[in-house]
Every structure is written in structure tokens, then in C-alpha cells.
């Protein structure tokens, strides 16, 4: 009886991430995770530790991958940590080199690694960690690589609305922590300086993920063989990659591309047998099979660890508003825009610059896409691409990763 009586006066319950203390019927709720992370944030820095993240837990890819690879190539004495969503999957697929230690993201261990690392390397905002108590120390270095080139769609401060409540406020906090942003053009210089709430240095290193496009033919064949083996593609088939982006409104009709007919048009125009790898944006990858019927010629590659490898070996590409096309442009191979919701997208998210300023043939319906494929002029396309890159003072040269690693060396030596 005494125990029950005392519980009515004072009790403590653990409910999810909250600790609820009840005193005389008055409940007080504490966020246990946030409280714990504030304590972790006070821990000392380990000067040789670098924590990488790619799209908040996706696998080994984008700019962080190529920076990590360069550190490994130089055999530098750093502890490399990667935050991932699914450790079991990554271990099974063996995407990561042995020199990188994997840690589950959004957990106590992840907060500890971030709080004690000298350097953070990320290609997306770290909002989740800030919401739950992580505070960056003054002598930590945060390198923000971002994940797009010459992006068509408006992002960050360019947008007229928030992606979710509090988005702008969280983005400003993240930008206040960033020490360096990486650029490959005057387009990036302007974007990061004026639309990311960022007042620090924008460094013209080039984009590390684009170093792959400057590799020699034998390396390309090695990646191609790995890709074709993974998806059981016949070695003589040519490869189309289709990479549509996500829609803020969640509508699916823009993904209505008739891939089977597209492959027939590519075969007629460019000869040979073709297959297509579909690479959906991370936000819609989980509904891939609801959108397309896959077979030996139409293959779901949405979960392939590194989209740059797909772009590197593809013979042609189709997208709508994804910045991936502006990495693929380096190859000078045929690329097309299929944007069946062009007017809706323009009225909603909006464009950073007129879509027609890009070098790619634009189609708003399937018939127009077919016409663009049939009438594709390689010489005109390469000239437009060259002029486009020159206008933006594009500076990728295959050595971006090396330049970023030099920044990391300097920061680590200044602890």
C-alpha cells in the first residue's frame, strides 16, 4: 500500500526517448537523448578522427567517398568513421574498404563519434543531430561538400517555401557550423555565398565525386564489369541510365516514362542492344517497384551504392531536373531531359535558371522525347555542352579529392 501511495506522489517513467517525472500529478518531460548528447558534446576531440556521412546514412558514395578514398590512397594515419543506416547490409554488400569503421547513424554512438572527431565531412545537412543536442566545438572542422552541380531546381534560401516547418532555421544553424564549402564553378561560388546562409570560404577544389570521370579506360572497364556482373547484363549491351528527381508534392505521374519504347528508339538511333538502369532519388527509392515493371532490360539500380559509377559507365542518360546530368555532361555522351510536369514544377519548386539554358534537349511529353532522340546531333550537343561549362567557369580536373585532403591535413595539424 505504501508503495502505491508513494507512486501517486512521485514516479519516473521511461517513454521512448523521454523520461517523464510525475510529482503530485504534475508531469515533467525530459528528452533523454538530447540531455545525453549535450554531455557527449563536452568530450575531448580525437585529433586524427574524421567522421563521414552521405545522405544521412546512405552507403559509400558521393563526394565523401572520394575524399575517403584519397586519404586511404595516401595511407594517412587517420581514423575514418562512416555513419550508415544499415550496417548489416553494408557488411554483406562489402561496399566499404576495411580502413573505414562503420557506425549506426542517429544513435548514441553516432553522437559520440561526431562530438569527438576533429573533422566532419558531409554532403547534406546534419539537422537531426542538432535537434537532439549535438553542439559543434570551435576547434572542430566541418567540410560541407554538398551533392549537386549546376542544380536546375531551387534549393535552400532560393526557395519560396520551407520543405518542412523550421527548415530555414535549421539550415541556418548548420551553415553557421560549416568551415568550408566546396565549389567547381562560379555557379557554385554564387550559390553557396548567397543562398546557403554561409559566410565562410567557398573553396574552388572541384567536386571530388567527379574525379572518377578523369580515370583511364582500364579503370572504366573494371567498374563496368563489376556493374554488369551485379545486374547480369550481357557484356555487349549499351547502357542508358534514367535518373529522375523527387517531387515536393509527392505526385507520381511525372515518372510515366515508357522505358521499353525509349530503349527501342536508342537502338534505332545509336545502334546495338540497350538496357536501362533506373536510379530513383533516395526520397522515393522505397516505391520503385510500384512505379516500374522491371525485367532483364529495365533494371532497378536505385540502391546501387555510388551513382557516379553508374554515370561513369553509362552510354546515355535521361533525367528531369536532377543535377546528376551536370556531372554526366563531363563524359560528353548523349543526355536528355524528360519533364512531363515542367509547368507544375516551375510554378512550385521553381528553377534557379531557365531550363532551356542547359545544353540538353528538353521534352515535355513522350512524343517530343522521341523526336529529340531521333534528331540528336552529337556535334551540336558537344558544342553546347562545352559552351555551357565555359560560361560557368567549370574547374573539375580530376584532382579535387587531393585538394580537399590537403585542407584536412592542415586542419588536423592545427589542433
Structure, briefly:
This protein has 415 residues and is α/β, with parallel strands linked by helices.
Question: What does this 3D model show about the protein?
Answer:
This protein has helices at residues 2-9, 32-40, 62-73, 87-93, 108-116, 127-131, 167-177, 186-195, 217-230, 259-270, 288-291, 307-313, 325-328, 342-347, 366-374, 378-391, 400-413; strands spanning 10-15, 18-23, 26-31, 46-53, 79-84, 100-104, 117-122, 141-144, 180-182, 202-203, 238-243, 274-278, 298-300, 316-319, 335-338, 362-363. The protein has 415 residues and is of the alpha/beta class. The protein has 3 domains: 2-32; 41-207 and 399-413, 3-Layer(aba) Sandwich (Rossmann fold), CATH 3.40.50.11820; 215-391, CDP-glycerol glycerophosphotransferase, C-terminal domain (Rossmann fold, 3-Layer(aba) Sandwich). The strands form 3 sheets. A 7-stranded parallel β-sheet has the order 6-5-4-7-8-9-10, with helices on both faces. Strands 13-12-11-14-15-16 form a 6-stranded parallel β-sheet, sandwiched between helices. It is globular.
Examine the secondary-structure arrangement and name the CATH architecture of the largest domain: 3-Layer(aba) Sandwich
Question: What is the gyration radius calculated from CA atoms?
Answer: 24 Å
Sheet having the most strands = 7 strands, parallel
In CATH, what is the class of the largest domain? Answer: Alpha Beta
Structural class: alpha/beta
Helical content class: 25-40%
- Low-confidence sequence ranges: none
Query: Going by CATH, what is the homologous superfamily of the largest domain?
Result: CDP-glycerol glycerophosphotransferase, N-terminal domain
End-to-end gap: 60 Å
Overall pLDDT: 89
Shape: globular
Give the tally of β-strands.
16
Strand order of the largest sheet: 6-5-4-7-8-9-10
Number of domains: 3
Strand content: 15-25%
Oligomer: single chain
- Remind me, CATH topology of the largest domain? Rossmann fold
SS element count, helices: 17
Amino acid at each position: 500500500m505504501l508503495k502505491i501511495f508513494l507512486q501517486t506522489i512521485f514516479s519516473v517513467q521511461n517513454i521512448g526517448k523521454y523520461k517523464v517525472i510525475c510529482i503530485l500529478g504534475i508531469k515533467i518531460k525530459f528528452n533523454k537523448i538530447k540531455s545525453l548528447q549535450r554531455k557527449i558534446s563536452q568530450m575531448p576531440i580525437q585529433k586524427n578522427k574524421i567522421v563521414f556521412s552521405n545522405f544521412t546514412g546512405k552507403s559509400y558514395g558521393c563526394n565523401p567517398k572520394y575524399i575517403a578514398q584519397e586519404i586511404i590512397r595516401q595511407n594517412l594515419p587517420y581514423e575514418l568513421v562512416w555513419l550508415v543506416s544499415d550496417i548489416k547490409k553494408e557488411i554483406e554488400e562489402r561496399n566499404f574498404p576495411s580502413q573505414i569503421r562503420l557506425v549506426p547513424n542517429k544513435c548514441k554512438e553516432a553522437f559520440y563519434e561526431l562530438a569527438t572527431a576533429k573533422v566532419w565531412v558531409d554532403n547534406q545537412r546534419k539537422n537531426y543531430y542538432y535537434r537532439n543536442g549535438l553542439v559543434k566545438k570551435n576547434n572542430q572542422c566541418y567540410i560541407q561538400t554538398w551533392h549537386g552541380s549546376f542544380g536546375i531546381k531551387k534549393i535552400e534560401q532560393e526557395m519560396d517555401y520551407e520543405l518542412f516547418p523550421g527548415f530555414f532555421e535549421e539550415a541556418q544553424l548548420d551553415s553557421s557550423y560549416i568551415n568550408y564549402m566546396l565549389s567547381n564553378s562560379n555557379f557554385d561560388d554564387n550559390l553557396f555565398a548567397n543562398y546557403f546562409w554561409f559566410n565562410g570560404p567557398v573553396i574552388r577544389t572541384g567536386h571530388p565525386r567527379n574525379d572518377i570521370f578523369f580515370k583511364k579506360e582500364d579503370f572504366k572497364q573494371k567498374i563496368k564489369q563489376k556493374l554488369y556482373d551485379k545486374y547480369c547484363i550481357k557484356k555487349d549491351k549499351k547502357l542508358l541510365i534514367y535518373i529522375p528527381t523527387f517531387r515536393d508534392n509527392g505526385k507520381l505521374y511525372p515518372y510515366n516514362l515508357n522505358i521499353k519504347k525509349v530503349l527501342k528508339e536508342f537502338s534505332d538511333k545509336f545502334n546495338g542492344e540497350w538496357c536501362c538502369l533506373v536510379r530513383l532519388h533516395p526520397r522515393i527509392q522505397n516505391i520503385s517497384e510500384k512505379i516500374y515493371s522491371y525485367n532483364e532490360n529495365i533494371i532497378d539500380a536505385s540502391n546501387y551504392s555510388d551513382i557516379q559509377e553508374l554515370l561513369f559507365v553509362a552510354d546515355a542518360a535521361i533525367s528531369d531536373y536532377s543535377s546528376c546530368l551536370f556531372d554526366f555532361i563531363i563524359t560528353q555522351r548523349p543526355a536528355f531531359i524528360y519533364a512531363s510536369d515542367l509547368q507544375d514544377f516551375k510554378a512550385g519548386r521553381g528553377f534557379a535558371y531557365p531550363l532551356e539554358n542547359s545544353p540538353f534537349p528538353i521534352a515535355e511529353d513522350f512524343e517530343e522525347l522521341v523526336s529529340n532522340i531521333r534528331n540528336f546531333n552529337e556535334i551540336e550537343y558537344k558544342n553546347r555542352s562545352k559552351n555551357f561549362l565555359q560560361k560557368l567557369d567549370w574547374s573539375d580536373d580530376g584532382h579535387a579529392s587531393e585538394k580537399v585532403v590537403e585542407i584536412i591535413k592542415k586542419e588536423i595539424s592545427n589542433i
